[in-house]
Structure prediction request, 213 residues.
Amino acid sequence: CEDCGRSLIGECKLHGPLIRAKDRVIPSRARLTLPHYLTLRVLELRAGNQQILGVFAKRVIQKRTQFGPYVGQLSTKLTRYDESRLVLQVLKDGGKYFLDTPDEDCGNWMMFVRLARNQEEQTLVAYQHCGEVYFTTVKPIEPHTELKVWYAADYAKFMEASAVFIKEESDVCPLPAVTAKEPIEPWICSTCRNAFATFALLESHQCINKDRV
Prediction:
């Protein structure tokens, strides 16, 4: 204690405890790489304060948007396995290696993307290109939608996994039938009057109408 001029085990009984200042918490490397239009959400809190995270869109993300490459450590075996995440491997110098992410400081935000359980919830496809793994959107992603991934057909063969196929979405759809129980309001372009199933499709279409420019 600088006031007493004595060395004490524990707190000074006369002058009390020291005022402790904590260091600022620095986000991990993986969290710092998250694009500004994506956000992490805690989906579940497990034993030991373990957080199950998901990556969500904050604005519309267009189809054919590419993310990557996936950052991880090349390893002959996985040190961290999570049943909700994809297992990724790459071919390097004739050898097959895992992209391992034992902690958040050796990977990027793509390590938080959860796998798609079915065709309906899949928004991303994973594939290998030039020894790197990339994720690309297979359809427009609406705000507040979670990004979920599965293997591309060729990459699924490489990973010895089954492939999930995504139906191609038509840019323009016919006006849906309106029922008394559940009226469906299409998104209609004010210029060309084409109808779209979602706002993302309306926003991304190229409207060319010379008469009404």
